[in-house]
Amino acid sequence: MKPSLLTLALTWLLLVSLTLAGAGLGDGAAPGLGLTLLVAIITALKGGMVIEEFLEVSGARPGIRYPVRVFGLLVPVCMILVYLYGPEIAQLTRLTSE
């Protein structure tokens, strides 16, 4: 079912608000796990809204719907993992040996 114009407009306004909130956090907050978790949550919310409202994956076949939803969750999880294990991930993914 296609979302109404009002639903799309409200979703867009919420996306803009979350983007501005994220920009405000990036400008003034001290880096740390709490900020990383908050940014990951905002990213997950925004990704979920885009996936559900604008890509309309709820009407897609499961072979498309589930991988797209998993990708939407994978990005915030990777953000947290990079914060927690950044040096180890960099070591695993480097191209040259030292």
Give keywords.
single chain, 98 residues, mainly alpha, 3 helices
Question: What would your notes on this structure say?
Answer:
This protein is mainly α. The chain has one domain. It is 80% helix and 0% strand. The chain contains three helices and no strands. The longest helix has 32 residues. The termini are far apart.
Mean pLDDT: 91
Shape label: flat
Strand content: under 5%
Radius of gyration: 17 Å
| Estimated structural class | mainly alpha
Q: How many domain modules?
A: 1
Residue windows where pLDDT falls under 50 for at least 5 positions: none
Summarize the biggest pleated sheet.
none
In total, the number of strands is 0
What is the number of helical segments per DSSP (H or I, 4+ residues)? 3
Distance between the termini: 55 Å
Order of helices and strands: HHH
Helix content: over 70%
